[in-house]
Design a protein that fits this description.
Blueprint (H helix, E strand, L loop, with lengths): L1 H8 L23 E9 L5 H10 L4 H11 L1 E9 L6 H13 L2 E7 L5 H15 L1 E9 L6 H10 L16
Parallel strand pairs: 1-2, 1-4, 2-3
Helix pairs in contact: 1-5
Length: 171
C-alpha cells in the first residue's frame, strides 16, 4: 500500500536520481526512468562486508556513475541511523559516504528486530527517489553478478508486477 502511495508521489519529484545523500533536485523537468535500483542492506558493524562488495561487484566512482547514466542501474548500501541521532555510528557512516558516495540513508532506527521495517522503508524510499522498472533488495553478505541479474530482469520486462526471489512461508 505504501509502495503504491510512494510511487504516485514520485510524480512530483522533478529530477533524476540523487547521488548518495543528495536531496530531490535536478536540472531537467522530466524524471528519468531507471532500469533497476539495487539496495544492499547493511549494518554499522559491516564495514568489511561493504568493502568486499565494493571490491567485487559494485563499481566505484566514475564507473558507478557511468553504470547509472548508461545502463540505468543504481546501487546503494542501505542503512538508517543509530539510536542516538548524529552519534559516533552515524558519523562513521557519514565519513564512509564522503569517501565512496554509495549510501542511501533511511529515516529508520537500525536494529536487528527492525529488519522488516527497514526493508519496507527501503522500498518506499527507493520508489520515492527513483522511477525504476525493478527494485532489488540484497544483503551485504550476498555477492551479485549484476550482468546476469540485468539479463534475467530484462527477459521479464513485458510482464506486469513481476516478483522474482525467494518467497518463504511457514514458522
Amino acid at each position: 500500500m505504501e509502495l503504491a502511495a510512494a510511487k504516485s508521489a514520485q510524480e512530483s519529484i522533478l529530477s533524476g536520481a540523487p547521488i548518495s545523500g543528495d536531496s530531490e533536485k535536478g536540472d531537467s523537468p522530466k524524471k528519468r526512468k531507471y532500469f533497476m535500483v539495487v539496495g544492499i542492506n547493511t549494518a554499522f558493524s559491516s564495514r568489511k562486508r561493504r568493502d568486499s562488495v565494493r571490491a567485487t561487484w559494485m563499481p566505484q566512482g566514475e564507473k558507478r556513475k557511468k553504470l547509472e547514466e548508461e545502463k540505468g542501474i543504481i546501487m546503494r548500501f542501505v542503512i538508517g541511523h543509530g539510536a542516538t541521532l548524529g552519534g559516533i555510528l552515524d558519523r562513521a557512516i557519514e565519513a564512509e559516504d564522503r569517501n565512496h558516495g554509495d549510501f542511501l540513508r533511511l529515516d529508520h532506527v537500525e536494529g536487528y528486530l527492525e529488519l522488516s521495517a527497514k526493508t519496507k522503508t527501503y522500498f518506499a524510499t527507493a520508489v520515492k527517489l527513483w522511477d525504476a522498472e525493478y527494485y532489488v533488495k540484497v544483503d551485504d553478505d550476498v555477492h551479485v553478478n549484476i550482468g546476469t541479474l540485468a539479463e534475467t530482469l530484462a527477459r521479464h520486462r513485458k510482464k506486469p508486477r513481476v516478483y522474482i526471489g525467494c518467497m518463504k512461508s511457514g514458522p
